[in-house]
Design goal:
Low-confidence stretches: none
Helix content: 10-25%
Strand content: 15-25%
Number of domains: 1
Number of helices: 3
Order of helices and strands: EHHEHE
Radius of gyration: 15 Å
Mean pLDDT: 83
Shape: elongated
Strand order of the largest sheet: 1-3-2
């Protein structure tokens, strides 16, 4: 049986670092390019298990995983985006 990656929804109030945290994990700079440094859309990022192991280092030493990675869903935190689907 094929196991898909777990889905991690990143939720929180505006300006609390949701996209910045994901930028660190991805090695990107999405937050810096967003208008007003506020996420303008819902985004998804697949992070392979190798990248997670690299970030976590010794925290995962000796642990075995069957998932191929994690799927992160980044959401805007501003009230103006409460109607997004």
């Amino acid at each position: 049986m094929y196991i898909r990656q777990p889905i991690v929804a990143v939720l929180g109030h505006v300006d609390h670092g949701k996209t910045t945290l994901l930028d660190y994990i991805r090695g990107s700079c999405v937050a810096a390019r967003e208008a007003g440094a506020i996420t303008q859309h819902i985004g998804a990022t697949e992070v392979p298990l190798d990248a997670i192991r690299k970030i976590c280092g010794n925290l995962l030493k000796g642990k075995q995983f069957k998932v191929p990675g994690l799927l992160f869903i980044d959401t805007p935190g501003h009230f103006a985006f409460t109607t997004l689907r």
